[in-house]
Amino acid sequence: MASSPVDPLTVYAAHSFENDSSYQAGLSTLYSSGAIDGLSGETKEDFLRRSRVFYFNQAYGCNISESDAKQLEEDRTYAPSTPEGAVTQDQEVSPSTPESPRTLTFAELQSLVEQGKTDEIPNNKHIPNIINEAAPSQSDAPQRKKPWEFPLQLE
Q1: pLDDT over 90 at 118, yes or no
Q2: If we measure between CA atoms, which residue out of 50, 51, 52, 64 comes closest to residue 8?
Q3: Of 76, 69, 38, residue with least CA distance to 51
Q4: How far apart are CA 22 and CA 28, in angstroms?
Q5: pLDDT (tens digit, 9 = 90+) per residue, 6-16?
Q6: Which residue numbers delimit the PEX14-like helix-turn-helix domain (predicted)?
């Protein structure tokens, strides 16, 4: 039995980029590098589409164009056949990294230190005021020779 060829755009449309861990890892790298930060709505959407097309072409060995993917996504957006609970193109894909804590101002930081609430300062690690109680280890390296302890070599 001969198998019928599969249209790459159909596979692209069916691919779940939201649940693809490899794509999400690459997307979080793009977010953390700041490549997406200054982009406006439509420019950001085009950038994300290019990333999806690039990933899809690399992963599946296809060669779909960005314009074909854009047309397909626009057709899917206008089609009312989106199942309940499914992610649509209007929803933004967010990176899998959690939000970083708010940066405190100097006055807020000063008041927390003065009140003794250092545990409420973000990224503040408590270092105990004790010395390591384990016995020190013995060195296995031989003691280094002094310059006058080397044998005299005349050439």
Answers
A1: no
A2: 64
A3: 69
A4: 10
A5: 788 888 888 88
A6: 12-74
